[in-house]
Design goal:
Blueprint lengths: L2 H10 L9 H10 L3 E4 L5 E5 L2 E7 L9 H5 L1
Antiparallel strand pairs: 1-2, 2-3
Length: 72
Amino acid sequence: MSRREKLKQKILDPQSQKNVTYDELCNFVERLGFTCKRKPTGHKVFTKDGIDEIINLQPGQNGKAKRYQVQQ
């Protein structure tokens, strides 16, 4: 299983979502074709052509992604 597939499984598994790092989640979103448009202090905003909604990611404690953002 590739690293990308392992990360996908980690993101989809409710028990593992709390262990996803902010950098892993940002990289995963970029691999889905989103681009970082703005980098306000402390968070990143991702957009994708053809999709009206944005993805706003903020780092949690200890470099982890916020669990509710992983779930979204």
